[in-house]
Amino acid sequence: MKRRFGVIAAAAVLSAALAVPSYAGTWKYVNDQWKYQRGANKYAYNEWVEDNGKYYYLNNDGYVTTGWQQIDGQWYYMDATGAMQTGWLKDDSGKWYYLYPSGVMAVSTVIDGRTIGADGVWTPGEGAVEPADSPDLSTAQLVQNMSDISTKGYSILTSARTGGGDRWENAIRLKGKGSYVLCSTKGEYRLLYGSFGPSSQFDSGLMARVTVYGDNDQVLYTSGDIHYNEKVTYFGVDVSGQNQVRVEVSLSKDNDYDDPVILLNGLTLYK
């Protein structure tokens, strides 16, 4: 039962991140390519489809996509069948990438002790060991559901809108400079993953950052400046060996009046 709950939780996180439609449908082979039919003469276009636990993206012509795809400004990789990939990936060019649990390509972070550049590429140094596995997606643990968290300026909103126009349910809201959520990880987790963006209440005179701290205030990740209309940022960070993890908001531009309001979506730990 415990493993089944983990699988359900992971599926819920992925569905929330991808906004996958729930309608039933049927795969159809058309012009030597696959389409997803929802009804009589009605096919899926420009959207994600979930089928048997796998996720597929249908393009503008309604066909299943393969290889690298940029969708809503984010890069994803689909295998030869069109299934979205997660975890470490070595593509046909021989370059290494890391794909978050939602499929989004990681950039400018550290995963499993390996530094990933702004282009999403991990370049192995001399003698470096290539990745052998990835965090177990069946162990998804939403931070807000953990029993031993401490917070400041923290609340859960059943419905919230980012400055970029995205609507989130059950989002963590951090309000105020120095606001945070801190959880005890006891060295049991490998990856912290989620997305964030400014609330629609974020003032245009401010700029903020999100920083992830580990033990002894070690900085594990820090974002770029967040503006009032910033698009959603997907992030992940290696938390291996950390006994506690704190996600905190700071200001890089203060107007000495308004509080920054940052929304976190699907903030999740994986083993």
Can you describe what's shown?
The chain is 6% helix and 43% strand. By secondary structure, it is mostly beta strands. Strands 12, 14, 17, 19, 22 and 24 form a six-stranded antiparallel sheet that branches. It is globular, with a radius of gyration of 19 Å.
List keywords for this structure.
5-stranded antiparallel sheet; 271 residues; NPCBM_sf; mainly beta; globular; signal; Galactose-bd-like_sf; single chain
> Strand tally, please?
24
- How much helix is in the residues? under 10%
Overall body shape: globular
Alpha plus pi helix count: 1
Distance between the termini: 18 Å
Strand percentage: 35-45%
The pLDDT mean sits at: 89
Structural class: mainly beta
The oligomerization state is single chain
- Summarize the main sheet: 6 strands, antiparallel
Radius of gyration, in Å, reads 19 Å
Order of helices and strands: HEEEEEEEEEEEEEEEEEEEEEEEE
The low-confidence runs, each spanning 5 or more residues with pLDDT under 50, are 1-12
Write the layout of secondary structure elements.
Elements: H1 2-18, E1 26-30, E2 33-39, E3 42-43, E4 47-51, E5 54-58, E6 67-71, E7 74-78, E8 87-90, E9 96-99, E10 109-111, E11 114-116, E12 141-142, E13 149-152, E14 154-157, E15 160-161, E16 167-168, E17 171-175, E18 180-184, E19 191-198, E20 207-213, E21 219-222, E22 233-238, E23 244-253, E24 261-270
Antiparallel strand pairs: 1-2, 2-3, 4-5, 6-7, 8-9, 10-11, 12-24, 13-18, 14-17, 15-16, 17-24, 18-23, 19-22, 19-24, 20-21, 20-23
